[in-house]
Design a protein that fits this description.
There is one protein chain. The protein is mostly beta strands and 158 residues long. The chain has a domain of 106 residues: TolB, C-terminal domain (Neuraminidase, 6 Propeller). It contains one helix and eleven strands. A four-stranded antiparallel sheet has the order 1-2-3-4, with no helix packed on it. A hairpin with a 7-residue loop joins strand 7 and strand 8. It is globular. The N terminus is likely disordered.
Length: 158
């Protein structure tokens, strides 16, 4: 009894029961996203077959990898076709364009990734090591190059 009196005297807080707030929160559902509609499908370009990779640059040019002809093409909005200077590709698969306009292509049989700098006609082999059949390629806004190959994704930082 003395301990109880001392406990109250030294200010041990009393336990209180939690009371719910007066106005319970109500959950609101997010509005449905607008439905996207598409126009009619149309063929904008055709090749001898083996179209593997596609990429679009920041101004709307389309880049196409043709596996059968071992070439990369740039298709401008007006329908102009330009073969890019990627000599020596063997079974190219992927293509990507970075924000600066540099174009990257995977060279599957040669186990490499090649970059064609904006305005250049001489491609550069990127310093990836031990690639095994690279296929997909992507470049982020920081210039990191990502490559998907037979069993992994690898990253090359600038």
């Amino acid at each position: 009894m003395l301990a109880a009196a001392l406990g109250l005297a030294i200010g041990i807080p009393a336990l209180r029961k939690h009371q719910p707030s007066a106005s319970p929160s109500t959950s609101k559902s997010a509005p449905a996203p607008p439905q996207r509609s598409y126009g009619a499908q149309r063929v904008i370009w055709s090749s001898d077959g083996g179209i593997n990779g596609l990429s679009v640059d920041r101004v709307g040019n389309l880049y196409v990898v043709c596996q059968n002809s071992n070439q990369v093409f740039e298709l401008a909005g007006s329908g102009l076709q330009t073969q890019l200077a990627f000599a020596g590709l063997n079974n190219p698969w992927g293509v990507a364009v970075d924000p600066a306009g540099n174009v990257y292509a995977t060279d599957n049989v040669n186990n490499r990734v090649v970059e064609l700098a904006m305005g250049s006609s001489t491609p550069t082999v990127l310093p990836f090591t031990d690639l095994n059949g690279p296929q997909g390629v992507a470049v982020d806004t920081d210039g990191n190059v990502y490559v998907g190959e037979s069993h992994r994704v690898v990253k090359l930082a600038p």
